[in-house]
Specification:
heterodimer, A: alpha/beta, UDP-N-acetylmuramoyl-L-alanine:D-glutamate ligase, eight-stranded mixed β-sheet, globular, B: Aminopeptidase, Aminopeptidase, 3 domains, twelve-stranded mixed β-sheet, 15 strands
Chain lengths: 216, 336
């Protein structure tokens, strides 16, 4: 039970769509020998279900949400993983050329927030995810929706918000956001207890440790 | 010992005291609610030592989803007294309320959570959005109230303006009159819009500090929406349907609870071959099982697995799912 599963987005039609999620996947795979990627099968198959039932973490990005069949496969994956106690992690990496600020698209982009335990956001994600250009308001909105760990990768620092608790860490380069998330998820996957049972200080220490690798 | 039970008429004052204690509503609104919406037989509470310590009000309504009308229960005033939180009382009270819905053959419940974080823990996800528009007009504008149209006239606008929305309450003329009374009870006023003499939009607002807040503004055209909000001073806020073409913050507004998944599948999908889904429901155990697209329980290996909360988002049109459920604009004008 130490598997970290990445939703591979491999059934998205173009390489351009694939890039953001695979970038995170690659970063995770480099750092985690126990990482698996879901199959290319457009449907959630038995092998996928087995992986998800053993998963410690399910990580995905917004490119999985853009079209069918990956979107419905993702929704099912989230529900199977969550039912089996996995940490659900969403790092949207919203490609603004592919998503519009239209009500229908925003609902889809925001839909994982209702079930995500971890959401990592970059400044460009915030208006899409929370309807707020102001970073702090947007991060607070995500926290209000019950995301257990909101990670705001802002220019002036990495902000970790969890319920009433907030901690700021020194900023890391935007180009390191994927690798940082990979480092953190690897640490979270090794936790021996559910995320909700972890004191904030323990989580903050893991974030600090993951951040430390990227400081100048 | 704590017991969970339905309210009775005799509980009205105690229920009202809890509402006043836990919510910031005005006395006039609270009076209105307990005169017009209080429905003890569909509301439930936890009683400890002879005292109500947790409560949830249920008000029977009709909800339109995908152009079909369903009996539904609006849940409001969910509150637990200080000192009694963290014991699972709210969840127990909600469960009894929803179990009673099932007994009454009410397949849906809906509400506007103050905090989505609380309700996601029991598997309830957003099913409707609203747009909060900040008025940017003349900061010194002083809106002059128009004469309030009749309930029948306003109902006509309401029906035309909300016909496109899934998740909207079906109102009668009597219901509309109650809603008007609600919107006016805190010193509210009404602005109207007409085209060629025919009423095609209205906006109810009340003063909050130095600006105004509108919790119901509906119109049959984008231009009517624009004209109505332009009459409020800068800084005023207006809650609008999510697809109104005005700047604002789109936010998750309401949840819909599937009380009877098989019935909803039958009504809103109806195609046995289109689904073979294992439904996970940790709150309402009778919803758990494997169903086809017509809501029949089947003894087959499921092709898909979904939580009841996520399935509800597909059923009502908030999110699309394969070619089975299309996405629709979802909005509910009523919230308490």
């Amino acid at each position: 039970m130490n598997k970290l599963i990445v939703f591979g987005d491999t059934n998205i039609s173009t390489t351009r769509d694939l890039y953001p999620a695979l970038h995170i996947s690659d970063a995770i795979k480099e750092r985690h020998t126990e990482c698996d990627v879901l199959s290319n099968d457009p449907l959630l198959n038995e092998s996928d279900r087995d992986l998800l039932k053993r998963a410690r973490i399910l990580q995905f990005g917004s490119s999985s949400l853009k079209s069918e069949p990956s979107r419905s496969k993702l929704y099912q994956s989230i529900d199977v993983a969550a039912k089996n106690g996995a940490i659900v992690s969403y790092a949207p990496r919203i490609d603004t050329e592919h998503w519009q600020m239209r009500s229908e698209e925003l609902r889809i982009l925001r839909s994982p927030v209702a079930t995500a335990d971890v959401v990592q956001v970059l400044p460009q994600d915030l208006p899409f995810l929370a309807g707020e250009a102001d970073a702090w308001s947007a991060i607070s909105d995500l926290n209000d929706q019950g995301v257990r760990l909101v990670l705001g990768m802002l220019e002036n620092g990495v902000f970790l918000l969890s319920g009433e608790d907030l901690r700021k860490f020194p900023a890391i380069k935007a180009s390191d956001a994927d690798a940082f998330l990979a480092e953190l998820l690897c640490r979270l996957s090794a936790l021996q207890k559910p995320l909700k049972a972890c004191p904030f200080a323990e989580i903050a220490a893991l974030v600090d440790d993951a951040c430390a690798r990227f400081r100048d | 010992m704590t017991t969970i039970c339905a309210l009775t008429g005799a509980d009205k004052q105690e229920a009202k005291d809890i509402w006043e204690l836990r919510f910031d509503d005005s006395l006039s609104f609270t009076d209105w609610f307990f005169n017009e919406r209080f429905s003890p037989e569909t509301s439930f509470c936890a009683v400890d030592g002879g005292k109500i310590v947790s409560i949830a009000h249920g008000s029977p309504m009709r909800l339109r989803i995908r152009n079909k009308t369903f009996d539904a229960m609006m849940v409001s005033g969910v509150a637990t007294l200080s000192g009694y939180e963290g014991r699972g009382l709210m969840k127990a009270v909600m469960f009894r309320l929803l179990k009673n819905c099932r007994r009454l053959n009410v397949p849906l419940a809906f509400h506007t959570p103050s905090h989505f974080s609380i309700y996601r823990a029991i598997g309830e996800f957003p099913c409707a959005d609203a747009l909060l528009h900040n008025c940017a007009g003349n900061p010194d504008a002083i809106p002059v109230s128009d004469e309030v149209p009749s309930a029948a006239e306003l109902l006509s606008v309401y029906e035309r303006a909300t016909a496109r929305y899934s998740g909207c309450v079906m109102r009668t003329e009597a219901f509309m009159q109650k809603r008007i009374d609600d919107l006016l009870c805190d010193g509210g006023f009404c602005l109207t819009h007409a085209t060629d003499g025919a009423l095609d939009g209205y906006l109810f607002a009340a003063k909050t500090g130095i600006v105004y807040a509108s919790e119901e503004a509906l119109a049959v055209s984008q231009s009517a929406y624009g004209a109505l909000v332009s009459r409020l001073p800068a800084g005023s806020t207006v809650k609008l349907p999510p697809d109104v073409e005005l700047p604002g913050k789109l936010y998750p507004q309401g949840v819909v609870v599937p009380v009877d998944v098989p019935f909803l599948l039958k009504s809103l999908c109806g195609e046995p071959q289109s689904l073979c889904v294992r439904v996970i429901d940790n709150m309402l155990p009778w919803n758990a099982g494997v169903f086809d697209g017509a809501g029949n329980a089947v003894d087959l290996e499921p092709k898909e697995t979904l939580s009841a909360g996520r399935l509800m988002q597909f059923l009502c049109g908030y999110l699309p799912y394969k070619d089975v459920f299309t996405q629709l604009p979802c909005f509910c004008a009523d919230e308490y």
